[in-house]
Amino acid sequence: xxxxxxxxxxxxxxxxxxxxxxxxxxxxxxxxxxxxxxxxxxxxxxxxxxxxxxxxxxxxxxxxxxxxxxxxxxxxxxxxxxxxxxxxxxxxxxxxxxxxxxxxxxxxxxxxxxxxxxxxxxxxxxxxxxxxxxxxxxxxxxxxxxxxxxxxxxxxxxxxxxxxxxxxxxxxxxxxxxxxxxxxxxxxxxxxxxxxxxxxxxxxxxxxx
Length: 209
Prior knowledge:
By secondary structure, this protein is of the alpha/beta class. It has one domain (54-207): Vaccinia Virus protein VP39 (Rossmann fold, 3-Layer(aba) Sandwich). It is built from six helices and nine strands, in the order H-E-E-H-E-H-E-H-E-E-H-E-H-E-E. It has helices at residues 6-11, 56-64, 82-90, 103-115, 148-160, 178-189, and strands at 29-35, 38-44, 72-76, 95-100, 121-124, 135-140, 162-172, 193-198, 201-207. The strands form two sheets. The chain has a seven-stranded mixed β-sheet with strand order 5-4-3-6-7-9-8, with helices on both faces. A two-stranded antiparallel sheet has the order 1-2. It is globular and about 45 Å long. 42% of the residues are buried.
């Protein structure tokens, strides 16, 4: 599938997928997702992370995530909802929330929830700025392009928004800053372990005691 002349347009676009507003034309297109033995379609568009396909890091996160039945689960920085929706397909009983600062991403997330007849809470939030509740699981493919300090802030704020025994599960390349994020998780939580590893990506988990 094609997104047209996006390469030429993006040359002049200083916005990022972690920007709140997107000025490029909004033309949703369906992509096909294959993950965890599932195959389904989702709407995507310009102005969101990995718009053409499921990115390999998110795939490893989805397939490695430890999410119990009924767990209050937050897909933090959800993009068009691919992680949270996949998790809910795997475990329909999860109490799912999805958040992002990118308004276009949230618009697509709502479209995708409707497409799959799913109920979930969609939150417009810069990190946890509009989130007051606590969760059993927070899933994060961190916006490393936004800088290390942003990722560290999300890890620290995740600790404050997890219930006792809850976990932050984060995917990153060890060779591309993942080890640094894992060290930060250990500093904040007092623990960090690897729960999945494939294709150069690792999924790190920290548990709030």
